[in-house]
Amino acid sequence: MLTAQESDQVLELVYATAEVLGHELRPAAAVLMADDLASYPFDEIRRALSRCRAELHGKLTLAAIIDRLPSANAHLLPNEAWALALRSLDEQETVVWTPEIARALGVAKPVLSGGDQIGGRMAFLAAYERELEAAKAEGRQPQWQVSLGHDQQRRTMVLNEAVSAGKLPAPKVAHLLPPPEKLLTQEGQRQRKRMVSQLREIINKPADAQAQARREAQEQEESRRRELLAQAGAPLAAMGGY
Known about the structure:
Layout: H1 4-20, H2 27-36, H3 42-55, H4 62-66, H5 78-88, E1 95-97, H6 99-113, H7 117-138, E2 145-147, H8 152-164, H9 170-174, H10 186-204, H11 207-238
Antiparallel strand pairs: 1-2
Helix pairs in contact: 1-2, 1-3, 5-7, 6-7
């Protein structure tokens, strides 16, 4: 939203741009234009009016200004939205999309479910165009949302791309990322392999062999305990029992 000072500057720029293009705006029309632009960032408006002065050959119109505002055209184009909607049908895929795309897909789904992909695409594009018109009329910016898929590797990739593109803030997606795998040293990897190997041997042994293995392990542990006790007692004997 523009500040009062920025609104005044936009009004002056609108007047000046119209004059450069060779016509005058009535005050009421200029004020309406400035009011309709108030929901956009000031720097974008200033650059859009600069482009109008350089590119237009006719009268200045509100549509010409809005067409040159990046934030007014931040929604995906219809074919881009369709490609994303198709990806969302794969349960393995994670997609970052907008409510407009989701609603348009909802309109097209019954047609797609009937096996008519061409008809489904036409239904989607028509519904999405209506959604875009409503969003532009209301000055709505894309509200990016996440639809999580089961493939964790793809989830990480898609969410990182969305953060890099500025669609989602990093803190918002941090809890959606799969936990990182713990890194093992080479020794840790060897120990894990030994443990897995031992477990497989135990699982594969018959019951009698497993019992025998347990008895042997207990006997080895008892023998080791006696050795440790003997080693601990030797220094005391040398000191006369103290």
